[in-house]
TrEMBL record:
<dbReference type="InterPro" id="IPR011761">
    <property type="entry name" value="ATP-grasp"/>
</dbReference>
<keyword id="KW-0547">Nucleotide-binding</keyword>
<dbReference type="GO" id="GO:0005737">
    <property type="term" value="C:cytoplasm"/>
</dbReference>
<keyword id="KW-0436">Ligase</keyword>
<dbReference type="InterPro" id="IPR021109">
    <property type="entry name" value="Peptidase_aspartic_dom_sf"/>
</dbReference>
<keyword id="KW-0464">Manganese</keyword>
<comment type="similarity">
    <text>In the C-terminal section; belongs to the RimK family.</text>
</comment>
<dbReference type="Pfam" id="PF18030">
    <property type="entry name" value="Rimk_N"/>
</dbReference>
<feature type="domain" description="ATP-grasp">
    <location>
        <begin position="272"/>
        <end position="455"/>
    </location>
</feature>
<keyword id="KW-0689">Ribosomal protein</keyword>
<dbReference type="GO" id="GO:0005840">
    <property type="term" value="C:ribosome"/>
</dbReference>
<dbReference type="InterPro" id="IPR008503">
    <property type="entry name" value="Asp_endopeptidase"/>
</dbReference>
<keyword id="KW-0648">Protein biosynthesis</keyword>
<keyword id="KW-0687">Ribonucleoprotein</keyword>
<protein>
    <recommendedName>
        <fullName>Probable alpha-L-glutamate ligase</fullName>
    </recommendedName>
</protein>
<dbReference type="GO" id="GO:0009432">
    <property type="term" value="P:SOS response"/>
</dbReference>
<keyword id="KW-0460">Magnesium</keyword>
Length: 470
């Protein structure tokens, strides 16, 4: 395919309407009206929104490439090259963003400037003005489609994925800790890929609940549309944080981890019930609310030694090893005295203070590390002084980790496994796993793999053909 120099070829003929493509915007086929009476070219778009830094402003918008098919929407983004006042044929003026994109017509391809305007109901999604036409172009006002025809069928096949360009995304990281390793890595990796990544303090969000126009506001301003939300919800704000995520889900924003999965994973009782429902192996676990059930509670998990866990414990805090029955009774009594909710769990002695953290992104385990507790500590959490090394996991461990993440419908999960005498057991599913330990232990770019998943999820997908009306 030739580039702009091809316009030097003699007598390139166009009709008053032609099939065109804008490959740089992911639009492989559109009908355009060729109008020599119009100075500028225009693309009929909607949801037009500027974003990005002032030094390199960009605009995002969407296009319905097939007239009458509003179920097919192609999201696009481009650099802003100008903002221009345009007067239409009926005398109305408006300020429009101007972008630059390559147009492909027949066997030619060259760059043109396009203004963006929302004019619903137009029969042609693009207007080709005289500025976009070279001196060697002849426009015949009585002919149609002098150049080869294209087809809208491309939007109903997987080819639409192949032609979609690497689109700049606007992404929000929900985090109350903007300077932690995980948050700064998410921002740096996203910006390195050309995306616009913003850190939003979860606690400073508030919501407008409306059946027609639900919104999320922040510091007095309605938040813009985001292509994706990456939740980093701390345990202290789980309830409010998941409410904010639910609001984004209501709007239709892609959330890496959904509110239901985060809520379930934070409540250890609920989490173990989900694991049991999906027949995923875990240490024998018991729960009771009445102090009269202490003896039965201990016997249900095989007696001492056993583990006592607060239902909302994190990073190894609120987890106690009771080595004897008397110690177990004392710990349980103390927790009940504090009116704390807890569960008891069989202690897998053969794990020897080690566990395996499997990091699941999408539908695969992308990294795994073995964590070993500090000297004399049965807990292997890195926050409690443990250390980590990369580990090769078995097929059963890999499949169990994927099944566990899928049970909670999480696209980013840290699944902790114990190696017991009768196979791997899931200890915990973390919906906001720390990224520092596993990236440094394995040397893998975990955040990059997460962005691969996000980019795959938000790209345009083929839509079925509209049913013909009888």
């Amino acid at each position: 395919m030739s580039t702009g120099t091809a316009l030097a070829d003699p007598l390139f003929r166009l009709g008053w309407e032609e099939w065109v493509a804008l490959p740089g915007l992911g639009l492989p086929a559109m009908k355009a009206k060729v109008d020599t009476g119009a100075r500028t070219s225009a693309l009929h778009a909607f949801d037009i929104e500027p974003f990005g830094p002032a030094s390199r402003p960009r605009v995002r918008f969407a296009v319905h490439p097939i007239p009458g098919r509003e179920d097919l929407s192609i999201p696009c983004s481009a650099e802003i090259v100008d903002r221009r006042e345009v007067t239409s044929s009926n005398g109305d003026s408006e300020w429009r963003f101007v972008i630059r994109s390559e147009i492909e017509v027949g066997n030619r391809r060259w760059p043109i400037d396009l203004t963006l305007t929302h004019r619903g109901g137009m029969a042609y999604r693009m207007l080709l003005g005289r500025q976009a036409l070279g001196e060697d172009v002849i426009v015949s006002p009585v002919d149609s489609f002098c150049q080869p025809r294209l087809s809208y069928e491309v939007y109903h096949t997987d080819e639409v994925r192949q032609v979609a360009p690497a689109r700049v995304l606007r992404i929000a990281v929900l985090s109350r800790e903007p300077h932690t390793y995980s948050t700064t890595r998410l921002v740096a990796e996203g910006e390195a890929r050309g995306h616009v990544v913003e850190v939003i303090d979860t606690a400073r969000c508030y919501m407008a609940l409306d059946a027609l126009t639900p919104e999320v506001h922040y510091d007095g301003t309605r938040l813009p549309r985001y292509d994706a939300i990456i939740p980093r919800i701390g345990a202290s704000v789980t309830s409010y944080g998941t409410a904010v995520i639910r609001q984004f889900e209501t709007i239709g924003t892609y959330c890496v981890n959904g509110s239901d999965g985060i809520t379930a994973s934070r409540d250890k009782l609920h989490a173990h019930q989900i694991l049991a429902r999906h027949r995923i192996g875990m240490p024998t676990t018991a729960f009771a609310a009445s102090p009269k059930d202490t003896g039965n509670l201990i016997s249900l998990v095989g007696g001492a030694p056993l583990i006592v866990k607060l239902l909302e414990s994190t990073q190894g805090k609120g987890v106690v090893l009771a080595e004897t029955k008397k110690a177990a009774e004392s710990v349980i009594s103390a927790f009940r005295g504090l009116k704390a909710s807890f569960l008891v769990q069989h202690f897998i002695k053969e794990a020897a203070g080690e566990d395996i953290r499997c990091l699941v992104v999408g539908s695969r385990v992308v990294a795994a590390m073995k964590r070993t507790g500090a000297e004399g500590d049965f807990r292997s959490n890195l926050h409690q002084g443990g250390h980590a090394v990369p580990v090769r996991i078995t097929r059963d461990e890999r499949e169990m980790a994927i099944r566990a993440a899928r049970a909670f419908r999480l696209n980013l999960a840290g699944v902790d496994l114990l190696r017991s005498a009768d196979g791997p057991k899931v200890l915990e599913v973390n919906s906001s796993p720390g990224l520092e330990g596993i990236e440094k232990a394995t040397g893998k770019n975990i955040v990059g793999l997460l962005y691969d998943e996000i980019e795959k999820r938000v790209r345009p997908v083929p839509v079925p053909k509209a049913r013909r009306r009888k």
